[in-house]
Amino acid sequence: MKILARDIPPRTVWALEQAGVHPLLARLFAARGVQAADELDDGLGQLLPPAGLQGTREAALLLADAIGQQLRICVVADYDCDGATACAVALRGLRMLGARQVSYLVPDRVVDGYGLTPAIAERVHQQGAQVLVTVDNGIASVDGVARAKALGMTVIVTDHHLPAATLPAADAIVNPNQPGCGFASKAMAGVGVMFYVLMALRAELRERGAFADMAQPRLDSLLPLVALGTVADVVKLDANNRRLVAQGLRRIRAGHMPPGLGALFAAASRRAATASTFDFGFALGPRINAAGRLADMTIGIECLLTDDTLLADTLARQLDAINRERRDIETGMREHAMLLAEALFEEGTEPPPAVSVFDPDFHEGVVGIVASRIKDKLHRPTFVFAASSAPGHEHELKGSGRSIPGFHLRDALDLVAKRHPGVLIKFGGHAMAAGCTIALDDFEVFEQALAQVAQEWLDERTLTRQLETDGPLPVQFRHAETVDTLNSQVWGQGFAPPTFSEELEIVSQRLVGEKHLSLKLRHHGEMVDGIWFGHTEPLPAKVLLAYRLDINEWQGQRKLQFLVEGAQLPGGAGSSA
User: Fold this and answer.
1) What is the pLDDT of residues 51-61, one digit of tens each?
2) CA distances from 356 to 267, 335, 395, 420, 459 (A)
3) How far apart are CA 314 and CA 135, in angstroms?
4) Could you give the 3-state DSSP secondary structure of residue 232?
5) Between the CA of residue 404 and those of 207, 355, 420, 470, what are the distances in Å?
6) Residue pair 54/83 in contact by the 8 Å Cβ criterion
7) CA 378 to centroid of chain Cα atoms
8) Beta strands at 557-568 and 526-532: parallel, antiparallel or unpaired
């Protein structure tokens, strides 16, 4: 590992401080590319206008007509947290805007696979739907959209995934990444795209006089769901996404949220009053995702849809139980998958440029999480495969991949498909996460093909783990209140949470729980507690550490501690948790 300090432009820091920004936050924001205080304005009025998102006008017209004629609308969702929140936003929003016949259908991960398939289109039609709206999927569903159109349905695709060369022949497509769309926020999650469609729909209904005798519906009540889905999907938190998340957090902290979110906070033993992006990414998001991985995402969607607090509490507890089961399955799978990965190279040598592992006993609902764990440890693009459980597809493998900076995973799959026609039955995804289906007999071909692409695209610099930090922590900010200040902000993918680094003296160290390193550190002459989770190797007396700030609460006392993220040992070697 190589620990690097971000460049901090001093003039920008000065300008932000002069505009009233907290001195430490000014440094952190400047290091992340913020150049002026107005970029930090998270007011609703600063959101990019819906008119700039291609397809929103067409979608709004079609939905306004459907509401006016009281047509039956069905939302086809995805089985992850982004898809679940997008579905809840769609149903809540459409009902607020006057739709009376709105239902949803979420595919089963095992039986149906991902997206709007022809079979899903037929099921939607059998339910009597006249308008089909996809959320967080559909941009690759050429055949599914064609089938829905052949059955006489109006089809509106709302998605954020990268499109292929051929777009589906939908009546409207809303996707910031579709060709010709000049929308500035290409990183919006599926839930954000659906929220923008609703804003455009409300404007269209307003023009038609729908709210002449009443106050127009307040769509901002949906922002807690938008915030959760945006963070949980690990999309880049550009300025527009940060505003969406900040607005959602503000409402949650004030207690204004759907009952299901409040119940999920309680089930996760987190406090909504001090909600942060960490809660979305590591507490609420995983509990909703667990339903799609192991059970039925309908449980997650219903939790987000209900206004009954008792039902919300029951569903949240169910999601919590499913998530505990998911963790148990993941633990065993991760250990076995790591052994398979480490068997690909000899001890003391470098791992292959890309890692692919498979075992017949792997659970297909957890392969993505396990791939992420292996990628984190080995710093290599990683695919983990499981045997398909879908009837008639027993000889297929479903794989989920996670990547490292500098290796665009979906583009890599595209090159594998071109070089080895027929090996990839289907694939899709993003730069950092992707999925694919292959035949069992083609696993070795895929493994070698992906490694070959990685060999060509990656070099020594990209294969070396680098941890960007914000440099030394100024001693005047070494207190518990700093943690509260940092937690009040929006951090996440593309706008990294603050991590500091400097050479520290290790006064003492001991193992706790047999797998964590408890530390006593000397920082500017004073003692500070430190903890390195998942690390057992002792550290030298002085070492360059990367750490985050945290509060250790014990018996009502709040004490600052350093959470170690990595160490750079003499000679440039290092390790990370």
Assistant:
1) 999 999 999 99
2) 35, 15, 18, 17, 19
3) 26
4) helix
5) 47, 12, 23, 21
6) no
7) 21
8) parallel
Walk across the sheet containing 172-174 and list its strands.
Answer: 102-105, 73-76, 131-135, 154-158, 172-174
Cα-based distances in Å from 149 to 59, 106, 129, 154, 174: 16, 19, 12, 7, 17
Interhelix angle 298-305/81-96, rounded to 10 degrees, is 40
Q: What pLDDT was estimated at residue 190? A: 98
Residue matched to tokens 């440099």: 471
The per-residue pLDDT for 577 is 53
Neighbours of 314 (CB within 10 A): 15
**Contacts of residue 572, Cβ cutoff 8 Å, sequence gap at least 6:** 2
DSSP string, 68-125: HTT--EEEE--SSHHHHHHHHHHHHHHHHTT--SEEEE---TTTT-SS--HHHHHHHH
How close are the terminal C-alpha atoms of the chain, in Å?
A: 11
Q: Which helix (DSSP H) or strand (DSSP E) does residue 345 occupy?
A: none
Backbone φ and ψ for 168, nearest 5 degrees, come out as -65, 150
pLDDT-flagged residues of the chain (< 70): 570-577
Structure tokens at 563: 């959470």
The predicted pLDDT at position 112 comes to 87
Neighbour-count burial of 440, counting CB atoms closer than 10 A to its CB (0-12 exposed, 13-18 middle, 19+ buried): middle
Q: Report the largest interatomic distance among the alpha carbons of the chain, rounded to a whole angstrom.
A: 74
Return the SS3 of 489. coil
* H, E, C per residue of 156-178: EEECCCCCCCCCCCCCEEECCCC
DSSP-H helix ranges across 268-408? 277-279, 285-294, 298-305, 309-342, 367-378
Amino acid at residue number 240: N
pTM of the model: 0.93
